[in-house]
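Lab manual, section 2.4: Encoding a predicted structure.

Procedure: take the sequence of the chain (277 residues), apply the prediction step described in section 2.3, and record the output as structure tokens. A sample record is shown.
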Amino acid sequence: MNKGELAVLVGPNGAGKTTTVKLLATILKPTKGKASVLGMDLVSEYKEIRKKIAYLPQDFEPYRDLTPMEAVMWSLVGRGWSLTDARAQAKNWIELMGLWDSRNKTCWTLSGGQRRRVVVAMVLATEADLIFLDEPTTGLDVEARHSTWKAIREIVKEGTTILLTTHNMKEAETIADTVILINQGKTLVQGSPNKLVDSLPYKHRIAAKKADEMDVDLKNFIDLGDRLIAYARDYEEAKDLVSKLSDFTSVLSIHRVGLEDAYLYLVKRGRENYEKA
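Recorded output:
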């Protein structure tokens, strides 16, 4: 990762996303291998690393008896900020996260989505050199997710480096500078969203309901249980596939491939098939 970069770690459940983040954030100690964070050894220099990073776990909650303002302010004071600077920074981030009207309510009275925004603010407000966010938008509605991503992009522009995990491929495609796809603890591919999508051998995606009998020769498809995802190399091949599929089932959609397709293709078929196709 480069300084001032937003990298998004994606992968299926159990792929190792949270474990990877916990290792890099010095929450877990590696049992073998070597790694460095901000140029420092993960094992021998973990105390120095902790001074320069911030970490948001999936299930972190603010102290229930504090207000959002107090939660952000005291988390900064705990990192060495002066009370005056911490109060000003807390005010700024409470406004950015859309929590101003709830700033003086105790956290236990807030909704789950509001509490999540409080802890996101607690971490982003630190201005740490490197920030780890594990599923930062879990439980947020569309408007709250949008404001959260906007805030994240703003601090990245200012030079903060962020590594986060998400299950939302559309959001990852929109916000990420770099996408890292892992499965079973191993990196399958890493690159910009556009690079991963452009590297796919197929340019169009056809989604269709799965029928009991389908006399169609589908060489390039993914079985998702109740539906099939078929891939075509160009628009003419896509039209031909739609015509054939329509004789047996309902075609749900056809569109150009995106990051979600690269994700499905790599996870279902593996890196070797992806590179050779």
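Check your result against the sample. The chain has a mean pLDDT of 89.
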